[in-house]
Amino acid sequence: MKQRIFLLFVVLVFHSFTLLSQRTVRGKVLTSKEVALEGAAVYLNNTSIGTTTDENGEFELPVGNGNYDLIISFLGFETIQHPLKKDAPNKRLVFTMVAKTNMLDEVVISKKKKMSKEDRAYFMRQFKRNFLGKTNLASECEILNEDVIDFDFDRFSRTLEASVSKPIQIRHKGLGYLITYDLVHFKQTPRNIEYLGYTRYQKLKGSKRKQRKWAKKRQVAYQGSTMHFFRSIVNGKMKEEGFVVDHFKKIPNPARPHDSIIKKARRELGIIASNNRTVTINLGDSNLSTRTKRDSLQDILNKSRLSRTIDIDIKKNLTAKEFTFIQNSVNYISFTDYLKVKYMNEEEEDNYRPGSGKLDYQVSMVTLFVRNSPFDKLGVLMRPLDLFLTGYWGYEKLADALPLDYQPTK
């Protein structure tokens, strides 16, 4: 069964900012005892814009004139998520960090659920595959502190959950980033994969040759991404940028037998196999020999492998105006059923669809859980939980994500 994948690598809400009209946010970070906290990380969620507090617990951070989340984190304290709005007064901020009270309990629980090295290695491979992904870029990511990741597996429901004692450090040698990911939630079931957290990007140092290589790979990662797609809509260049959008719906596959028929066929095949002799079996109004009956039942089981649904086109080659609109200077995406987004300027990776079925373009399917959902001028969904992505966008995970302040080379 294909897994449905929710891409939630930024917690709760994506927020936007613009690189123009920058302002400076100033503040101070204290403990609950009003002691200045030195070395606390202060950054804009899912960007490369960040700093740390000085010996007085103070910080300054240049940011764009927009809406975004300010994240304050320090080991042993609860992470603070502070929404900043572009129209809010530019006043000095003071944050009080609260110590985590359940750290000892978590250690005790972890010891009680200690697993073998073999099991942990197996779950770590699953975690990396579903967190970083299986793309070419995922193979260039290295988790530097695997020991901070703990796993809990429920064998009855086949559910894997991951938790962390401190943020995960990821060296992305493909894109040239050190990624700090403060994991809030990771859950993998036979049907779904969900993860969310706070992300900070820091550019790695390297030679000019490496910098050029990273810049090229960032450009490739950007092309065909959701960020690229929504930015192309904002700029009125969706088709020029290589995107083709079709509107479709799913209906039951008429070539696939009903589940009740499949179940009956499987049961009767079992009876024939156990009898192992020639009999006459009544099938409706006709009588068939055992061999003929067996072939008929096997044909039903062969058809059971067909997809449960098929796609019916409502309209092909949509314009952006047919599934988006602008209200009060805010862009919205709005449609019924499903959208099929094809990016025509880049082929699929071998890891995605190996063999002769590989396409020379990328296809993603989009479902909208609400009537409409806003996105900003930088191509970022402001309520990412409104959309459900499968296909190629479901295949690409954290390893192929870029910071929100990324700008492609023109």
UniProtKB/TrEMBL annotation:
Domain of life: Bacteria
Protein name: Carboxypeptidase-like regulatory domain-containing protein
